[in-house]
Amino acid sequence: MTANNLYGRLPSVDRLLHLAEHHNLPERHGRTNTLVRIRQLLDEARQVIRQQQQLPSWIGNRDIDEPQLCRLLADGLEKQSQPGQRRVFNLTGTILHTNLGRAQQAEAAIAAVTQVMRHPATLEYSLANAQRGHRDQAISQLLQELIGCEDACIVNNNAAAVLIMLATMAAGKEVIVSRGELVEIGGSFRIPDVMKQAGCKLVEVGATNRTHLRDYQQAITDQTALLMKVHTSNYMIQGFTSAVSESELCQLGKEQQLPVVSDLGSGSLINLAEYDLPAEPMPQSMIADGINLVSFSGDKLLGGPQAGIIAGDKELIELIQHHPLKRALRCDKMTLASLEATLNLYRHPERLPCELPTLAKLTRPLSELNAQAQRLLPVLRQLAGSHFHLQAEPSMGQIGSGALPTEQLMSIAITFNPKSGSNQSLHHLAEQLAGGNIPIIGRIHHDKLWLCMRGLSHEADFIEQINTLIANQHQEIPA
Ligand SMILES: *Cc1c(COP(=O)(O)O)cnc(C)c1O
What we know:
Belongs to the SelA family. The chain is α/β, with parallel strands linked by helices. It folds into 3 domains: 3-81, no CATH class; 89-98 and 361-476, Aspartate Aminotransferase, domain 1; 107-355, Aspartate Aminotransferase, domain 2. The protein is 44% helix and 16% strand. The longest helix has 22 residues, at 31-52. Bound molecules: pyridoxal-5'-phosphate. Residues 157-159, 162, 183, 185, 189, 230-231, 233, 263, 265-266, 297, 308, 401-402 line the site of pyridoxal-5'-phosphate.
């Protein structure tokens, strides 16, 4: 049959809509959506004719294969209605996974956000005198209590915090930073580039592995506006090294009447060593050491929403609050509500491991992870069938988001080892796990697929998800 004849056999939009109506598709997905999907399907059919000189498989020899047509329409409509940002199970072993949304919020934060989304709120309104208030006020007061700062300013993320600190305090001037601390965080956040954007001149001192106090001292000129420390959060320089501590730098800053600021990256408001986790620098000790400003993220170890927190001297915070960039970088009411509720939890530190999902995950004991793995092995074996060897084994997780780069987190993972040794079956399995309603994201490493238990909460949902995948496996119609 010539292509022209084939085009002639394509059904009309009206006929397909009629069939779709018969199967209640417009009722379920809306008439407009259904029409869009029908036109899309016809476009695809014309492409098949053009490229392969044959009809698509949903048009049989005599007529339309109606069940197949409806399945194609429904699948497409189903897919289109899925949001771009979907819930997943993060079993990658990286708890604060930037690509998977970093920290999960505490229930108190979720409740607070819901309130301000639904109702008017005192975002910039003072109930005490019915006058304009400041949107960062409540959080600043909490931080004063929690970390001993004089004041605080909240912006969109920590990258924004660094940018506005530099732009406010050192535009057109020199900022001294150790060569060993010129970090790139990823996603084009590099300290030298941020300096340029802020209009500052970067003065690098020391060598990559060693920087001494005298290096800073000798670099100070009448153009110097700021001494800066950057936490080397995603790498570690080991061996013959030397760095100047914040407290030493603060001493020098005082002598020279220069402000000292620190970009902490993650920062932790609690001493992680008390939870048998590797210690991470704390903003309160920086403040106690006399730092003028310290900045850190809201959604890393703090466990709150994406935000950048700048805490420190009142007069410097005041300057930042009045910088034109603040208007561009300020947070919305949802972020502020969530951050306030999260910080509020830190007033009851003994409850934190229960109430802060990030800390809950980081502190889950190995025995619990192991018990969970044992519970899940049977159902996962059912999914994997006879092609894989499954076992629960020790694995190395990490906190993620640049926190504690070299310290690994002991964990337990369920591993899938293909009996054929074929990597192809591993990728197929990974695709299958990611193809469900709630995608399950693991990690392929050393020719195995690893599902790390440390990131797994909502176990009942997980089991339901696996059972659905198993059911779909049995339903799969041979092509
Ligand atoms: C993560 C990080 C940043 C960027 O923080 P965001 O909140 O992701 O914008 C900046 N500096 C350091 C040292 C970091 O670790």
